Model the fold of this input.
Amino acid sequence: MPLHRSVHNYMIGGVCGGIAEWLGWNPTLVRISYVVVAILSAAFPGLLVYIILWMVMPRAEY
Done:
């Protein structure tokens, strides 16, 4: 399965849900991990990476 934004595990842009589906992990665990990492990195790089992934990752077609 290719990496894509999720249409089922969707909160803001579907990025974390898509990563969770791709890895076979729980979407909530991925979201919490992403927020913790973003906060520990002074939030700006994490927010920037999320926005870039939102623009680059294709949306799932199902």
Summary: The first helix runs from residue 15 to 23.
